Amino acid sequence: KTEDEKLGGVSIYLCVSLQGGVDNEVSLTAYITIALLEIPLPVTHSVVRNALFCLETAADEKENHVYTKALMAYAFALAGKEEKRKALLSSLEKEAVKKDGSVHWQRPGKEPEVDLPYYRYRAPSAEVEMTAYVLLAHLTTQPAPSQEELSFASLIAKWISGQQNPSGGFSSTQ
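== PZP protein ==
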């Protein structure tokens, strides 16, 4: 069977537009690329190759949303594209919110959290998700992450664990 037949006989061309929970074409392409690489399809598969080409082109654009950068960083980590992964992580680190010994990312223009007595603020699900994608991008690398990356990743994990609800789960859009 050809690779396209293994995908159910459907040829897929990524860089598509879809209405719904995804902000833009680049985010959708990154989601699909991540799913294909986690199957795992090889980076040499034509669909994955095309998707990565689209993402590489998009990664050079300056106006990418922080959520999109997080998705792309993880997709490049899965694909073994270290230069792109590191460049996006470096860009993301400049946009990080570093507070109380933890690190996370939030959407631009979002109101800062308010400290109220007897109230535990939990971030919206999109912020938990994008922060989790950055954590995955830090930890998904060959060779294994450096000690510096692991230390930074622990600050991200600290923030994520603080977002758990009393039942141990997280709010989610998915």
